[in-house]
Amino acid sequence: MQPNPKMLLLTLVLMLLLALGLAVVFFGSGGAQSANAIGAPTESPAAQVAANAPKQAAPIAPAGVKKGRVVILGFDGVEPTIVDTMLDAGELPNLAKLRDTGSYARLTSAIPPQSPSAWSSFATCKNTGAHGIYDFITRDPSRYGPRKGFGSSEHAKLGPDGAVTEPAKFVSLRKGDSFWKIADQQGLKCAALLVPFAFPAEDLAQGCMLCGLGVTDIRGTDSTYFSFSESHAAPENVAGGILLPLSFTDNVASVTIPGARNPLKPYGSPEGFVQVPLEFTVDRGAKKVSIKTPAETLELAENEWSKWIEWSFEVSPKFTVKAISRFYAMEAGDQVNVYMACLQFHPKAPYIRLSTPETYSSELMDKYGLFKTIGWSFDTHAVRKDALSDDAFLEDVANSMTWNERLTVDEMDRNVHDMVIAAWTGPDRVSHMFWRFRDQKHPLYTEAGAKQYGRAVENTYKAMDGTVGKVMAKLAPDDLLMILSDHGFKSFRKGLNVNTWLVRNGFLNVVGQTDPATAYTTKDQSFLSGFDWTKSRAYSLGLGSIFINMKGREGQGIVSAEDADALAGEIRQKLLAFTDPETGEKLFDAIYTKEVFTGAASADAPDLQLGYADGFQSSKATVSGSAPEALLEINDDKWSGEHGSSDVANTPGIFFSNKKINTEKPGIIDLGVTALHYLGAAVPTDLEGKPLL
Ligand SMILES: [Zn+2]
Fold first, then answer.
1. What tens digit of pLDDT does each residue of 580-630 get?
2. Residue 642 Cα to ligand 1 middle (Å)
3. Which residues of 342-367 are buried (b: 16+ CB within 10 A; e: fewer)?
4. Which of 70, 222, 507, 554 is most buried, by CB atoms within 10 Å?
5. pLDDT of residue 41
6. pTM (predicted TM-score)
7. Residue 290 burial (CB count, 10 A)
């Protein structure tokens, strides 16, 4: 596209101003684009480029002419080989149309091809080293402690009188603005709907945003479900959930649930979370249970989801936290077993702001009624623990995908946006949980399971194709449609205990154990406890990271910076040569050194990033920094599909467009840049992606 001279001049002025560190203030009305002029070429809002440019931003490349509206649909974790098969079988007619008349390609993901890193690369158009989101979990090198890899939530702070002095917040670790914010700063109106790992909601001068994956529950966790059952012996906290026993007298059982955090009380004390009563009454003959919450009483039959219910947790006379949740009756006969979804933000009064404008979530509730707000929107934790059935899970996925489709299509119908970006996590979650029934070599594979659920993943792809069709019907000829998945999928049959491998090879030392051939950490020694750092040279935490115990960086580092590269190289070579003793299969397709990470956050990069071959991943114990006895573990978890530390080269996502693109190898960092170009917007030069058309 040809830059016009006026534009170029303004850009140069802007660059100069930015170089001088001057903030430029712009007073004006909305964008130069006419909201209704979809598809009509429009002058780029040049003045606003200068006026609304991000502070300390890189220089901005010249803008061009708006060619039309942009729509981007993101489907988390869609595997290209399955898409190929379904395209060939005629099962994805709308995507086939795009392939035949526009483009279809493999999409290069981020390193590692994990949702946090990949979606952050999508948003910022930069490699992982620039935005700094490497993994779901990472470490604080000074104390070898775990840290959430993409950000953390902080509960509200209260004064002595119980009034809020500081509201709850989520602090993202991502460096760099999203491309929709960059577009917004140039007067373009964007809707960003449920894009993963784009929380908290960004300030947009126009347009709207609803946060998705990354939004916590009111307890500050990714998602904490409640399971009420006669088979639970005692209250117990498990991964992702709380089990509470039901004891019936005359068919009535009472429990209390710990709800919102009371920051005035110690975390571990009974008062640390506001307790609220619940009462269950069972009609075993009719297989029905009635549940009395403080707000209402509802009737629920076996295998049925309840409607949404509202909660109010009075933390203090001056502070009440509102939440929503719903129930699913797993059993209501001889046994009573009821699941309750996590206590998630109330759209009318979210614990932490989850939309832009702030009132947007409330407006959505006025329009659609109560809706799911938890970012981890499908309860994989509960399915893994049998607290929620496979069928209930899949029913929830199907309904949620439909709701998200409606939201997206409705936003397009409003005809006010220059760009609509929407994302779905259903395909990813179903793949994680149901890969066991599509890989005959998976330890949990059964013929019966394959018959019943062998096409669970395909069903989400069909839903995706249906959504694509509805969106295509709304496009004007000049509108650009791009569809992506952030990464593909692999089977997870065996997990490598990476720390155990490091111990066996003399790189990591367990306190008090001198023989590396037999040393291991015990179950209660998680999160890098139990290692002797004065004798350890490397360790692993998270889905696929290895860190050198570096002098001056790690709290008790012993490896000098000069020796670190050679050590990383030695570990890399040895791991690449490592094969499964049982089958002879190689575990790794690639292992990346930290040079692949460039930019503002590269100092935080792992020293080695593992790239597993199909079938292998880091074990769960590795993720949490332990070194169990066995080197390799069979994965008998329903969490049976993975991609988190697969080799990026073998885990591409998909890319479709209604336009022909200029490369066979698009990357996840390219879509935002392409969108900005198409909208005639200026592109900051530190964005690494290339325009695809
Ligand atoms: Zn993903």
1. 999 999 999 999 999 999 999 999 999 999 999 999 999 999 999 999 999
2. 10
3. bbbbbbbebbbbbbbbeebbbebbee
4. 70
5. 30
6. 0.90
7. 16
